[in-house]
Amino acid sequence: MKWIKCQVNEENKRSFSKAQEGWGQLRHCAGFIGQIGGWNRNEPCEAGILSVWKDLLCYRHFMQHQHDEIFAKSDQGSTYTNISVDIFESISNIGTTDITYFLNKGILLRVADCSVEKDKHARFEQVLKGVGNRGMLSGAFGKRQNGRYLAASLWDNEESHQRYADKEFPALINESGVKDSTQRISVSLIELHPKWAVI
């Protein structure tokens, strides 16, 4: 999973959005599964984009041979002031269905980026695997070697997400003891833009 965050000045949001619509060529790249994104509800000048690949080998091939040409054509580089890109190895689905089946069905993407102390990794992964879908369409989580985890969940209605955010998520954190093992957690709530989706 590739998690991209871009900071965009208010006056450039329209240009950025138009450029983001120009990534349709990804469909023809070997190993590409899907990409979705939109604006972060908590930070309206931040775009969040989640891209899913079959494996790291396919992704690296794309970066070496195809990325720069698509990027140059879009002229997207001139539309944002800052970008962060993180790659997470997928560990498990949240719930029973693969998140890739639902990439074109959600209206909200919730992404929690967590840093976890080394001795708590196994416990943290166990907790995430036991979450169940709790009203979401589906979800997935992945990790990096430095103890960072990404939990992504897709939602098809506001009410289910709000109930999860207000009641279930805090209860889950308390029940699991994960709060003690998490050094840092940041949550992005992305209102998905249908024209940014490449499925």
State the distance separating the first and last CA atoms.
Answer: 15 Å
The CATH topology label of the largest domain is Alpha-Beta Plaits
Number of strands: 9
In order across it, which strands form the biggest sheet? 4-1-3-2-9-6-8-7-5
Approximately what portion of the residues adopt beta-strand conformation? 25-35%
* Tally of discrete structural domains: 2
Supply Rg. Answer: 17 Å
Low confidence ranges: none
Q: What's the helix count?
A: 6
Order of helices and strands: EHEEHHEEEHEEHHE
Please give the CATH class of the largest domain: Alpha Beta
Mean pLDDT: 89
Question: What's the CATH architecture name of the largest domain?
Answer: 2-Layer Sandwich
Secondary-structure-derived class:
alpha+beta
Biggest sheet: strands, sense, closure?
Answer: 9 strands, antiparallel
Percent helix range: 25-40%
The dominant shape is: globular
